[in-house]
Amino acid sequence: MAAATPAARPATRFEPALMRRKLSGTVFYGACLAAIGLLLLTLVALLVDVFVRAAPWLDVDFLTGVPSSRPARAGILPAMVGTFEIGLIVGAVTFPIGVAAAIYLAEYAADSRLNRLLQTNISNLAGVPSIIYGILGLAVFVRALALGPTILSAALTLSLLILPVVIIASIEALKAVPQAQREGAYALGASRWQMVRRSVLPAAAPGIMTGIILAMARAIGEAAPLILIGAFTFVTFLPNPIEGQYTVLPIQIYGWATRPQADFQGISAAAIVVVLGLMLVLNGLALVVRARLSRHIQW
Amino acid sequence: MTAPPISLTHRRPISERIIERLLFAAAALGVLTTLGIVAVLAFETFEFFLEVSPIEFFTGTRWSALIKPQSWGVLALVSGTVLVATIALVIAIPLGLLAAVLLAEYATPRVRNVVKPILETIAGVPTIVLGFFGLNFIAPQVLRPLLGPDNIGVFSALSGGIVVGILITPLIASISEDAMRAVPRGMREGAYAMGATKFEVIRKVVFPAALSGIMASIILAMSRAIGETMAVVLTVGTKPQLTFDPTESVQTMTAFIVQISIGETAQGSIEYKSLFAVGATLFLLTFVLNLLSGWVVRRFRTAY
Fold first, then answer.
1. Any A CB within 8 A of B32 CB
2. Is B265 in a helix, a strand, or coil?
3. Which residue, A269, A275, B88, B292, has fewest beta-carbon neighbours within 10 Å?
């Protein structure tokens, strides 16, 4: 059709204008670099700002002390203990439930309407704002089940919050296991559960554990839902998991950051350094666990 | 073929069936969570609407829960939320997409292995830390010197929008990068063969082909921005008002929920119930956005 026309066109119609086109490409590449540069600069500014503010306050007394109305004497031990207790409970609750749900969805579920609904529901839950989980926890754990505003209520609420994340990460890990691994187990006469338990789970373990540790890091850094579960209190004693008041690191940071005095901003920054350190440890742990568990996996 | 087949294990052993039930129960817990959220929000919101007319709630523009005379126009909170989320997206869309292009199209594997973990680090920083950064750095050391201390206060929608923008940039970058990397190599090579420059390949081939993933990432980021709490609560202030001036102090839906929860609010009081009504509004808004994001991916996905 039009194939005959190009030869008839005057030769001047096509101008490669390569210089101009290449130049716009260079400008665009520059913009990309600038964007990344700006992001890195922001991260550096954040870290430097926090560390400079925190430096005068970070000492052993701060780590082992209790909150005080005088910044110089304030410490974060109760908040640290609260965070550890919550982290432990969240891990203990989400690990079995999250992995079990992932196994069902990845290994058992047929492609039925019900199972698709379960899957869709979990990805939708992952998008629900964390503060909504706080409202749920307030109504269900604190009030209806009468657990009160305690570490236990807070941990259960955070478990619900990160369960979708754990499930999605575990499903990814299970799906990454090659089909031959399953067929091999069946060929040896394994039942479905034996196949999953002895063949697929060990192969998926690195991915699953990484997902769980990173989800725990998220739970530990989360503050919004806990404000509804009564974490925003002045606690000068080590919290008990099932009764009495408690606080956690992110809430302590928030509490101090709302005070106008520069000294309180300082100890708030010091608490941030502790939280960031904790995140670093957890991320490092995820790397180590991943490396250790994948030693025997080869395909 | 007369003898019946010898059944080795015609029925699966009981233990296998129990295990499957247990696994199913774990997966179904999610549905219970969803039902719980909906039930809790619906019940208390209904109670709230027994005292406040839904018309006042959804059309009023003045929100005053703690200062008498009380007024329940949720639009004042919704507009604050939308203002902050819009500023965040104006920052995060260009930054996130440019970062995604750099990682997917320009960066060597070595550069990507350095830059990607850094982006993930930003995504993993607890949001309260970003709130602190907004309160102590962005507002006093960037915005106020830049715009003049008379023009912008310590608390502003702009300051909140910037920190939320920082927070959602890695989300856009990471999902968009995946979408761009999923575009088959052959399409790029075809364009190169026709004489396109690298920029033209990115703009006219890769970008349109990855558009469904990019749009989904933006909608997800919008949902995150609307639901973000701790970064906002320290930066935007506590002044609910219907305004589109980014230098004004506002209050978002999430920040209001925090304010009510911290104060001494008796269970069963109208203020307590308003928390659930605002929560329900927030839930619906993010829920619709999440559904939209999934729909965009399914509807506009082009399989290669």
1. no
2. coil
3. B292
How far apart CA B255 and CA B72 sit, in angstroms, is 16
Residue A182: both structure tokens together: 């399953």
- Joined tokens for residue A88: 């432990």
B283 touches chain A (CB under 8 A): yes
Distance from CA of residue A70 to its chain's centroid? Answer: 33
CA distance linking residue A208 with residue A192, whole number of Å: 20
Q: Does B24 touch chain A (CB under 8 A)?
A: yes
**B211 touches A: beta carbon within 8 Å:** no
CA A158 – CA A153 distance, rounded (Å): 9
- B23, B121, B126 ranked by CB distance to A104: nearest: B23
B90 burial via Cβ count (<10 Å: 0-12, 13-18, 19+)? middle
Radius of gyration of chain A (CA): 26
pLDDT tens digits along A73-88: 888 898 999 999 999 9
B22 vs A: CB within 8 A? yes
The most distant pair of C-alpha atoms in chain A lies apart, rounded to whole Å, by: 90
Among B102, B114, B128, the residue to mutate for chain A (most A Cβ within 10 A): B128
Quick: pLDDT tens for B204-251.
999 999 998 999 899 999 999 999 999 999 999 888 888 889 999 999
> Within the 211-250 window of chain A, which residues sit less than 8 Å (CB to CB) from chain B?
214, 217-218, 220-224, 227-228, 232, 250
Residue B228 identity (one-letter amino acid): E
DSSP H or E stretch at residue B71: strand B71-72
Cα gap A269→A267, rounded to integer Å? 5
DSSP B74: T
Instruction: For residue range B114-161, list pLDDT tens digits in order.
Output: 888 888 888 889 999 999 999 999 999 999 999 988 888 899 999 999
ipTM over 0.95: no
Nearest one of B277, B274, B252 to B41, comparing CA atoms: B277
Handedness of CA A236, A237, A242, A248 (dihedral sign): positive
Sequence-distant (6+) residues with CB within 8 A of A277 are none
**Residues A208-239: tens digit of each pLDDT:** 998 999 899 999 999 999 999 987 777 777 77
Q: Rounded to an integer, what distance in angstroms lies between the CA atom of residue A222 and that of residue A278?
A: 13
* Residue from the list A133, A139, A250 with its beta carbon closest to the beta carbon of B128: A250
- All residues at 6 or more sequence positions from A54 whose CB lies less than 8 Å from its CB, including other chains: A266, A269, A270, A272, A273
For A251, counting Cβ atoms within 10 Å of its Cβ (0-12 exposed, 13-18 middle, 19+ buried), the class is buried
